[in-house]
Design brief:
There is one protein chain. It contains 15 helices and two strands. The chain is globular, with a radius of gyration of 21 Å. Strand 1 and strand 2 form a beta hairpin. Helix 2 packs antiparallel against helix 3. It is mostly helical and 300 residues long. The protein folds into two domains: 124 residues, Tetratricopeptide repeat domain (Serine Threonine Protein Phosphatase 5, Tetratricopeptide repeat, Alpha Horseshoe), CATH 1.25.40.10; 101 residues, Alpha Horseshoe (Serine Threonine Protein Phosphatase 5, Tetratricopeptide repeat), CATH 1.25.40.10.
């Protein structure tokens, strides 16, 4: 199942071009492999992750070098919060297919879950592959981690893609700075200086959440995300505001992006799962809504 994913700068999300179907991928394998692979996907879909891992490991025994199996294992280990194992398998898949954007995205998720920077694992990554470097920059850009994305692009081979993405990142940074400046000037006009500290944003957002002031919350949380793009609480707050402003798909996209930054915070996770369930119900997707409701842990 070889998948080629190409970021299109004019779109909000990458365009995913599937070159070969899962059926074609499996044609080359034995019935035993196919049965285990499909059963793994089935068990993963119903969140029986332990069983999914066992079936995938059996696929791995049959074909030790299969990068699709490695990638699936990485995703399941992510769900199980076994982040070092997720990193190991996602890195194996990525090194086998450096141009695959999905593999790059999954690997970055494993790092974020562990609080690791890309510099700590740079020697293990396929730098030198232009497509990998472009994909890596794109992944960090989509997470609004502009500084990291820009540093990757500065070291990458120049191309139309890197030039366009660099321009878009610089525009985003400029907009973030301008909005911060305007907010500061507005605060000064009202007789106080607006702070952009992390704690100040949290306090302001908590006040707006308590007051259920969705319009103001949407604006402040968006501003907080621009400055602190790796804070899951701000994704939650922004998604909460978007949902109450009837922007259901935007709320889903925001909170699902925020899940990548969660690390052992069950209270916040439960809040995000609850909001995601409500958002999916709002667009009549009961399957996804129920999936997130099942993720809510009692007692938190």
């Amino acid at each position: 199942m070889k998948l080629f994913l190409t970021p299109i700068l004019g779109q909000e999300t990458p365009e995913f071009e599937v070159q070969e179907s899962a059926e074609l991928f499996l044609e080359a394998y034995s019935d035993e492999f196919q049965e285990n692979f499909f059963e793994a996907l089935k068990q993963k879909g119903i969140e029986n992750y332990d069983k999914a891992i066992n079936y995938l490991l059996e696929c791995k025994r049959i074909d030790p070098s299969n990068r699709v199996v490695d990638h699936e294992l990485a995703k399941v280990y992510l769900e199980e919060k076994q982040y070092p194992l997720a990193e190991e398998y996602s890195l194996t898949a990525l090194r086998a297919d450096p141009e695959n954007l999905w593999y790059t995205d999954t690997f970055v998720k494993t790092l974020l879950k562990q609080g690791k920077s890309i510099d700590k694992v740079k020697s293990e990554l396929p730098f030198g592959s232009s497509k990998f470097e472009e994909n890596l920059a794109w992944v960090f850009f989509k997470r609004k981690n502009y500084e990291v994305a820009l540093s990757i692009l500065k070291a990458a081979k120049k191309s139309d893609f890197t030039t366009q993405l660099s321009s878009r990142i610089n525009d985003s940074i400029e907009l973030k700075d301008k909005e911060a400046t305007q907010e500061g000037l507005s605060g000064a006009d009202e007789g106080f200086a607006a702070s952009d500290s992390l704690e100040d944003y949290k306090n302001r957002i908590e006040t707006l959440l308590s007051a259920n002031s969705a319009s103001a919350l949407e604006k402040i949380s968006q501003e907080a995300l621009e400055i602190y793009p790796s804070q899951p609480y701000f994704y939650y707050a922004h998604g909460y505001a978007l949902l109450r402003n009837a922007k259901y798909q935007e709320a889903i996209d925001t909170m699902e992006a925020g899940l990548d930054y969660l690390f052992d915070d069950d209270v916040l996770a439960n809040k995000m799962y609850q909001e995601l369930a409500e958002a999916y119900n709002s667009i009549n997707n009961s399957v996804k809504a129920n999936m997130y409701l099942r993720k809510i842990k009692p007692g938190f």
